[in-house]
Design a protein that fits this description.
About 0% of the residues lie in helices and about 45% in strands. The chain is built from no helices and 5 strands. The chain has a 3-stranded antiparallel sheet, with no helix packed on it. Strand 1 and strand 2 form a beta hairpin.
């Protein structure tokens, strides 16, 4: 959860408006917000390497509408 007060929690629905280097602009309930890239750092147990993984805190979703008339 990035910010529960602002509604940026798990399974929040947003629309991506633009992607720039290091930031994603989203539209959520008529408000534009910016999401930064998050860096995860971890060490592998079997080696001395440190892995840095960068990702945006988003998950793609798809929707369909069925009209039962």
């Amino acid at each position: 959860n990035l910010s529960v007060e602002k509604g940026l929690a798990r399974n929040a629905r947003v629309c991506i408006t633009s992607v720039v280097e290091g930031l994603v602009q989203i539209l959520q309930t008529e408000e534009i917000r910016c999401l930064p890239r998050i860096t995860f750092t971890f060490n592998l147990a079997s080696s001395s390497w440190t892995v840095n993984r960068k990702q945006f805190p988003l998950r793609p979703a798809y929707a369909t509408t069925f009209n039962g008339s």
